[in-house]
Amino acid sequence: MTPGSVDTALTGGPTPFGVRLAAAIGSRSALCVGIDPHVATLAAWGLGRDEAGLTAFGRVLVDAAAGRAAVVKPQVAFFEAAGVAGYRALDATIRRARDAGLLVVADVKRGDIGTTGDDYATAWLDRDGPFAADAMTVSPYLGYGSLRGTLDVARANDAGVFVLAATSNPEARVLQTAVLAEGPRAGRTVAAGIVLDVADDNPGVDATTIGDVGLVLGATLDLTDFGITEDEIGSSPVLAPGFGAQGARIEDLRALYGSRAEQVLVSESRGLLGDGPDGVAALVADRADRIRAALATTGSAA
């Protein structure tokens, strides 16, 4: 890759993650292609849960996403289940994605305290480290302050972080809609408090770009149920799982996220896999076209 070139500069170097993400969305689409080699999908595709099978699966998804999507998001658990062989396949998948000019969000959902959390971040975000992803997903449910070291590692490497805030699994609702009794966010829900904390970690971002610290907000949710308003999202990029097989519709992007729709990554995985490996590229192209059409419409949620 040539450092500083228009397209390949999106995947590394000294440019902050939010700037690279905005450029990738603008030059391709806001699609995030999930790379989820679940054992049942591998079997349906005639692939094994071994290095060769996982690498082949990743190759199909990356090649389909190249030139069409801003981001690919490997679900690390499905690779990790194969042990060392899975990690070799994941490394090959990430390298292929970066060579294709794609941004890589490692879906690892790490969240720990002190030096343990710092080293999780180093493993995934250090630009000279073993994986060198562009961003990672993290859980703030040991307290948002427990992520401080992770955010420091991310900034030192011009990488990004997506913080779980409002998730679609039903087990999370009781916790995420609970009202905080004390502290600076007292009276707000837990999820809304996280949204505000993340917005505070994106200071000084002007209207032409988006921040480096993002949110995970499930697309199948009514965010008002979680006490979240679109204005409070601020400049935070949003990773929005739930499109496709889980039921959210791309055409509802503005209804779901209003004035923040342009900074939403439309994440889909299972819905791209049903036609087998030969059908992935056409489905990715379809989703990218539909995202661009949805964002071309004016107006926001009623």
Describe the model:
The protein has 302 residues and is an alpha/beta fold. Helix content is 38%, strand content 14%. It is built from twelve helices and eight strands. The chain has helices spanning 17-27, 39-44, 51-65, 76-80, 83-99, 114-125, 148-156, 173-176, 190-200, 230-233, 253-257, 280-296, and strands at 31-35, 71-74, 103-110, 135-138, 160-166, 213-217, 238-241, 264-268. An eight-stranded parallel beta barrel has the order 1-2-3-4-5-6-7-8, surrounded by seven helices. The model is unreliable at 1-9 (pLDDT under 50).
Ends distance: 45 Å
What is the element string, with H for helices and E for strands?
Answer: HEHHEHHEHEHEHHEHEHEH
- Class by alpha and beta content: alpha/beta
Uncertain segments: 1-9
Strand segment count:
8
Helical residue percent?
Answer: 25-40%
Strand content: 5-15%
